[in-house]
Amino acid sequence: MSADTLNGRKRNTPVLEKELITDTDTLEAVTPETSAKVEAPIVTPEAPETDVHQPEIEKKVATKKKKPIALIAAVVGVGAIVAGSFGYRYWQYASTHQQTDNATVTGNVHQVSSRIPGTIDRVLVNDNQLVQPGQLLVELDPRDYQSKVQQATAALENARSQAQAAQANIALAAQTTSGKTTQAQGDVNSAVAAISTAQAAVREAQAGIPAAQAAVREAQAGIPAAQAQVAQANANLQKAQADYNRYNQLYQQGAIARQQLDTAKAAYDVATAQKNAAIQGVEQAQAQLASARVGVAKAQSVLAQAQEGVTSAQAKLAASRGGLQQATAGGQDTTAKRSQYEAAKAAIAQAEASLKDAQLQLSYTNITAPSAGRVGNKNVEVGNRVQAGTPLMAIVDDQKWVVANFKETQLENMKPGEPVEIKLDAFPHHTFSGHVDSISPASGAQFALLPPDNATGNFTKIVQRIPVKIVLDQKSIQGYESRITPGMSAEVAVEVK
């Protein structure tokens, strides 16, 4: 067992100290005087050689020499008894307690820092001041962040306006597209019907052309017959004229009667009429041929017109189908408008998030206490320019405990819940009580910045220390709550079973 452990146990055993003080007080009455008597030299007067009382003097001197020896033996016996009693009690105490002076008071130290950059506008607390949770500690200049909140608000209103416009465009585009689609579909149907009508007219015109051409051929065939009739009528006219002329001469000569002349004259008139009728028949046949040719031309014109109507109807159909496609594209435009509306809603959500972020940044200008406690390590003043994460002060709360670093050889019988006696160097005349809360899952060396590597080849076995958390009993620290601070040195003794 090490010397520091023994010294610690001696310091942490008030009962034994009292007993030792009692035993020491008992010995104090004997030891100083006795030791003085033992250490004091014995001076004997020189006697003359002829002194008759010499034997008596020698007896007295021998008696005086025996008394210090007896006192020394008594002191040694008492000391042995006291040492034996102390040793037994110390052994009994040491077998049920584990002690260490490698212990400190620990507590929750809440670091207060700025979450945003800014300039300190006000500091509302002083060093060592008691604060409550949520209490305002420091204020930053909020004007820059207020401007950002206003900008975010304006951006949100703009996004909402754009969303409303996009939503109105959706309804308008939907109605327009529906109307255009209906109209385009009607135009397509009308164009299809016009094509059918024009095609029927084409077929009818195509059917009329052969009849007109047949009439032309018939009229052409009637002209020679009419001309033959004219020639016959001419021949008949010439004969009738010759007969009339001859009968007229005979009548003038009185060779024939008037009746014969009139008959010849009638025959001449008939022949003349027949000639005129034949001429008219030729003219009529020619007129019929011209009319038949006009009918052919008209039929061809009707055919051409009907074909043009078909072409026009097909063009209208194409245009109507283009309008229908355009109307369908208008539906796609409506889909695009809906996409714009969704994008506008996303922009609203983004603007709202930006506004919340700006408001949150503005709220960070008020730095509040994270918990109840006292202010420590305050290093901020009005006008300081701070960055995000700059430490401003610390808040130390009232929850405090002791972390004792026991040697690993002392933890065999130590368990959570076992009672602990605690002495703080700041209060050496007061003993606090507590209990073991928990034992660290690893040694302190494992949590170091550079933990040791035992596989490097130069391993030296060193007894490791394991942190043990000890919670102070509230009753034992009454009146000391504000005086016990983290970092104080402590000595602890754990009563193990």
Task: Give your account of this protein's structure.
- Residues 402-494 form the p-hydroxybenzoic acid efflux pump subunit AaeA-like beta-barrel domain.
- Keywords: Coiled coil, Membrane, Transmembrane, Transmembrane helix.
- It holds the Pfam family Beta-barrel_AAEA.
- This protein folds into two domains: 97-133 and 372-450 and 459-495, Beta Barrel (Elongation Factor Tu (Ef-tu), domain 3), CATH 2.40.30; 145-362, Methyl-accepting chemotaxis protein (Helix Hairpins, Orthogonal Bundle), CATH 1.10.287.
- 59% of the residues lie in helices and 18% in strands.
- The chain has six helices and twelve strands.
- A six-stranded antiparallel barrel has the order 1-8-11-10-9-12.
- The protein is rod-shaped.
- The two termini are 19 Å apart.
- 16% of the residues are buried.
Q: Secondary-structure blueprint of this entry?
A:
Blueprint: H1 3-11, H2 14-28, H3 31-39, H4 54-94, E1 97-113, E2 118-123, E3 130-131, E4 136-140, H5 143-253, H6 258-363, E5 366-368, E6 373-376, E7 385-386, E8 391-407, E9 419-424, E10 427-439, E11 465-472, E12 489-495
Antiparallel strand pairs: 1-8, 1-12, 2-4, 2-7, 3-6, 4-5, 6-8, 8-11, 9-10, 9-12, 10-11
Q: What is the CATH architecture term of the largest domain? A: Orthogonal Bundle
Distance between the termini: 19 Å
CATH topology annotation of the largest domain? Helix Hairpins
The helix content is: 55-70%
Radius of gyration using CA atoms only: 71 Å
Widest β-sheet, arrangement of strands:
1-8-11-10-9-12
Major sheet size, sense and barrel closure: 6 strands, antiparallel, barrel
CATH superfamily (homologous) name of the largest domain: Methyl-accepting chemotaxis protein
The run of helices and strands is HHHHEEEEHHEEEEEEEE
